[in-house]
Amino acid sequence: MNINKIPAKTFYWLHMNDAQIDPAAAAAEGVFTAENPNCLTGRTEAASVLDIQTGMGDETARLFDGAAIPVHYFTCAPGTKTADALRFDFMYRDGDSVLNRFEFEIPDNCDITVAMRFSAEKETAATAGIQVKFKIGKASVVRLQQVQTLGGDVEFYNDTGVSCDDGARFELTQVVLDGKHTYIGARTSLEGTASALVSDVGYLVGRDARLDMNYVAYHTGKKTTCDINASGVLSGNAYKLFRGTIDFRNGCAGAVGNEKEDIILMDEDIVNKTIPIILCEEEDVEGNHGATIGRIDEELMFYLESRGIPADAVYDIMAKARINAVAARITDEKTRNAVTAYLGEEPENDE
Amino acid sequence: MSRKLLEINGLKVNVADKQILHGVDLAVGSGETHVLMGPNGAGKSTLGYAVMGDPRYTVTEGTVVFDGRDITAENADVRAKAGIFLSFQNPIEVPGISLSNFIRSALEQRTGKRVKLWEFRKELKAAMEILEMDPAYADRDLNVGFSGGEKKKAEILQLLMLKPSLAILDETDSGLDVDAVRTVSVGIKEYQKNKNASLLIITHSTRILEALHVDATHVLADGQMIASGDASLVEEINNHGFEQFLAR
Amino acid sequence: MKEKTQVNDIDRSMYDFRFENKDAYKVHEGLTPAIVEQISKEKKDPAWMEQFRLQALQIYNQMPFPDWGPAIDGLQMDNIVTYVRPNTKMSAKWSEVPAEIKDTFERLGIPQAERKSLAGVGAQFDSELVYHNVKAEVAALGVVYTDLESALHGEYAEMIQKHFMKLVTPRDHKFAALHGAVWSGGSFVYVPPGVSVEIPLQSYFRLNAPGAGQFEHTLIIVDEGAYLHFIEGCSAPKYNVANLHAGCVELYVGKNAKLRYSTIENWSKNMYNLNTKRAKVEDGGVIEWVSGSFGSHVSYLYPMSILAGKGARAEFTGITFAGKGQNLDTGTKVVHNAPETSSYVNTRSISKDGGISTFRSSVVVNRNAENSKSAVSCQSLMLDDISRSDTIPAMDIRTNKADVGHEAKIGRISDEAVFYLMSRGISEEDARAMIVSGFADNVSKELPLEYAVEMNNLIRIEMKGSIG
């Protein structure tokens, strides 16, 4: 099936228009534990409740609808604000072929954080996928904070779809630290006036790992804003494809979109692909995209070396600094600590 | 008073649905220099933009009459052609159009005639010398990358070249060092040499006025004229501030 | 004397005049091996060329139409006349060109431009060149500027066979295959080593016949250390039937050579402009593209630079203005295939009156392109909310020893800037036109003066009546 399609196709020979996957049919629901779920009320449904498009696209319906897994549906009373995150921990096991599905309907004036951690033991070969949908009510703030520390042989699908009402704000923070093939799709529909998306992804891709991303901000509401940031480090034979689209639809007057990508390439055999798209059918908008790809700035390198830090260490420091900068956006301490612990444990993992 | 050039009658102005001017009257005669003072947020700049016809400033009541003609509903370009000039506090950067080409186009629009390049260049060079501007600025894109002082000088340069009958200078001295203020004053004096040239100087300081002849002074506060007088009023405000008028 | 370059109030109709070329020789509409053979015979092709054409036709029939760009449904290939020969032979003397054709080019200012500022001029009318001339002093340097057909039979025949459609092969895409099958006309330029041609050469393409296609082939070889500026202009009168332009430009830039290739494209708005341009640059060589796209109903245009030699460099400066009924998909492609190569892309696009402009690009930095640099900057301007402007830049980087930067911006004309200009007495229409011209400045300042003036006039025409 074809997933992570960009909203406007380009030259086929670039192989960026979509990703082709052929996952085995999921055998079961992935095992997870939940912490502090009392702030929301949950129930399980047999099928999807929220009709919201996701970043990986229509064809993932075949993947998720085809599997006989429940949809965990959560909601809460209007005005619910919790400091503690609703936390999910997924631990994939060898031989798993599993999926999970979550849907959140958040009413007006709420402030909710959902944290998810995906991990697997070393030497685990598995296929796993997750789909998360949010319907965010007026003036509500929702944070989704995901940290992925999967071993070297897990194929992972991470699919998100969000719709925002007036004044709603969605903050997505994702940290990708390992995995064999990782596919991320996240689509946010900014329908409500002055709704906002802030999306940050930080990644370390090494060995022969593959990271394929598709972020879409779909602006229909007036004065909507999006900030899409990607920052990462590629090493070994890593392959990375970043697709980021700001789609200004007619009527989104006053909208502003910014997209930024910052990548450091460590080794000779990497493949780094980027396609930042701005689509625009509205006059009164402002869209910007910037990308810097390559080595560490020579001046900075010289400065650090002059203070006695060898070049290799500079790269290591810079790589960690990037990930830590993204991780710092994770408000849930436990989830954030997972990142630091991972970086501390295996500082040389890509060397 | 000499022939009235600008007459503002009971002007009420809104910005984004908020009323800023609450019925302002002001008359400037031909060849006169008026000073408009007042505390921050009084509506001084609003008055300037409203006279120039900025579409973001909505006139809800009152009229602006220029040279005997009601221009309240006219576009900015029509007002400019009629002889009004506004020097902006923060002149806009316009990439791709050189300062010199821009002034020449504005002159051609104003006069409806082609401006001969040679004579124009000569006049421009002379005006730039008065303002101590590097001649290289003539060929740089309009205001792009100009420092604050250079932008202000470029505004006065346009004033000298376009020769309006009324110039409204909006805080032209703000953010300038002493030397730059002096240069700008020299430019304004040069403009005043034409005995029909009228000035409305909006300022909250008096530095720029030191070397200039002033016919009348007005004080605006909270969108209303609270005092008017002759040049001596400037001195009074200098010594005692605005509080005395606000207290009345 | 009134010269085209000084006319301020030109209107678009100056490009729209046409005359009926009743005596012209045409092939039937549509495309069959028989038609291709007929063209080949008519053009007295060498045997290899006839074979080449027939193979290209086969490839054409196998390949799909592109589905990623603007719709080309209006282009029914069965209705396109692939070959229209004007009823004249090519001439090197202006006086020998038939009066009506001469009149066309005179109105476009071609002979004046030649007298004034060009080293040589070629003029193509429908499928064939009708005029070709090079200044004697340029020819004396060994510079060859001729039509491709005569070159195929002359002393450069071997050089042409070695280079013709080697850079853009018929397998590239469907319209490259079509071009290979039915190409006609175009120019061959050879600049010998070390020769610097100080003043530009120009080709002007005029498509006059309704429902016709123009498939000229331009082959330029700038040998080691040489320099050339080549200018290409295109126009056509407006007809109600679709016209097709599927030209091909192949540029070979030798070691330490430099070629500047400038185009002001102003096809009429019934034209499908599916043009392919490509340059291969050897060690230390430079290709500079300057490209203005104003005309056409639909355009697919992405001049490509292949940086094949160490230190080779590409610059692309472009402007696209899409007005009513236009869908202009333009941009550039760069492949860094050698160390220390660099590319700089700077484009502007403007959309107005329901026009669609798309900036599409690809920058590929291969593993062997160590210490290369690429910087892409594209800016788009939306003039109303019924138009559309898309930016689709792709980057594929395969070495860690490269610096690649990209920036894109989209926005509108600021109300403050319009008011500022109006406050100095400039009308709103002129203020907006000035700001748009300023926005297009990146291209106009790269063009020779008279072309810059023409471009600004085109912008002025497009901006007329733009205030509702």
What are the key terms here?
heterotrimer, A: 351 residues, mainly beta, 10-stranded mixed sheet, disordered C terminus, C: 468 residues, alpha/beta, disordered N terminus
How many alpha or pi helices of chain B? 8
Number of strands of chain A: 21
Give the overall silhouette of chain B.
globular
Q: Count of helical segments of chain A?
A: 4
- Kindly report how far apart the N and C termini of chain A lie: 34 Å
**Quantity of strands of chain B, as a count:** 10
Please characterize this protein's 3D structure.
- The complex is a heterotrimer of chains A (351), B (248) and C (468).
- By secondary structure, chain A is mainly β.
- Chain A has one domain (2-297).
- Helix content of chain A is 13%, strand content 48%.
- Chain A contains four helices and 21 strands.
- In chain A, strands 3, 5, 6, 8, 10, 12, 14, 16, 18 and 20 form a ten-stranded mixed sheet that branches. In chain A, strands 4-7-9-11-13-15-17-19-21 form a nine-stranded mixed sheet, covered by helices on one side.
- Chain B is α/β, with parallel strands linked by helices.
- Chain B has helices at 44-52, 76-82, 99-111, 117-130, 148-162, 178-192, 232-240, 243-247, and strands at residues 4-15, 18-29, 33-37, 57-66, 69-70, 84-87, 166-170, 198-202, 216-221, 224-229.
- In chain B, helix 3 (99-111) runs parallel beside helix 5 (148-162) and helix 5 (148-162) packs parallel to helix 6 (178-192).
- The mean pLDDT of chain B is 87.
- With 468 residues, chain C is an alpha/beta fold.
- Chain C is 24% helix and 35% strand.
- Chain C is built from 13 helices and 24 strands.
- Chain C has helices spanning 13-16, 33-42, 47-62, 99-107, 110-117, 136-140, 148-153, 157-163, 174-182, 415-422, 428-439, 441-444, 449-463; strands spanning 25-26, 84-85, 120-125, 128-134, 144-147, 187-191, 201-206, 213-214, 217-222, 227-235, 243-245, 248-253, 258-266, 271-281, 286-293, 298-301, 304-307, 313-322, 327-336, 342-351, 356-365, 372-382, 388-397, 402-412.
- In chain C, helix 2 packs antiparallel against helix 3 (47-62) and helix 11 (428-439) packs across helix 13 (449-463).
- Residues 1-12 of chain C have low confidence and may be disordered.
- At the A-C interface, strand 20 and strand 21 of A face strand 21, strand 23 and strand 24 of C.
- Strand 20 (271-280) of chain A pairs antiparallel with strand 23 (388-397) of chain C, so a sheet runs across the interface.
